[in-house]
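Thread title: Can someone regenerate the structure for this chain?

I was given the following input by a collaborator and told the matching structure tokens would be attached. They weren't. Posting the sequence so someone can regenerate them.
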Amino acid sequence: MGRRRKITAEYIAGLIAGGWGSGHGERYQPFMKIEHGNASTVSNQKLGVLPDRRGHGHFFSRTEDRIAHLCSWIGARDVRTQFPMWPMEHLHPGVGLKDFDKLGDVQFDGLIRIANACGIEHGVYVGTRVPYVATMDLMVTVARDHLAELAAIAVKPRHSVEEAGSSDRILERLSLGKHYCASINVSHRIADIDVLSPTLNKNLNSYAPHYENVRELRSNSGFIERACELFHKDIDALSKRELEAKATRDLNVEKSLAQRAFSYLAWRSSLDVNLAREIFECDLVPRGARQVKRVLQENLFGRAVDE
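Best answer:
Regenerated them for you:
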């Protein structure tokens, strides 16, 4: 929404009717979008594409982008950015997924009622009486025991939270987010960039598969399965470079395709490659990814989830 646009109840209703803040997967539209009129000159806003997905995430900080990538690596099925915590009664955010069908007609309290119960001012758009539509930075879909669940993540600089006074608005907003999530039975976590080590951050960039590359890998019937079997067989005996060279020869493919296959399988944990450790071409690949993922899942999702 552009900064100069006049906010009215009719305008907000039009956004909702247009699908803003609803949907799942590629059909989801963030309620807040990075546009020409609202681009920040000081923060690192980014239109980003998550690994193995089409469509853009609207990240209002670089940290949101990095944590969304981390969520994808540790098992997120979907990451919805700038997810609305509607001020009025509304359907559960999981409605639209088959595991939430039983909640299809249930109305949940809006944030205004939750704010009143907490003794916190909800807020309106500046210069209006239109209730503000607050958003959760990341609303993540995960699976546990093959059933869909949601996990909410508020991405905030740790120092801003730790140094805030008890009446500071940032703490009030975090409190509202926590109570909102409790009302819909969704876990709520606060995260900052320090959840990512520099090495993991670097490897997430290097190994994340792009949608078109995944299509190419999958277009060759049986190739990715054969590559996985070959890598598995020798992963404890050969270096990364030797594994990729052997796949190039044995599968009769271009070296670059073998490299992309290794990266994809490592990202998906079809191969146990620990992206939290340095990976050197001439060394055996580090193992232990699943243990690292479990710790991160509990930190960000509140529990271990299916991968």
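Residues 36-42 have pLDDT under 50 and may be disordered.
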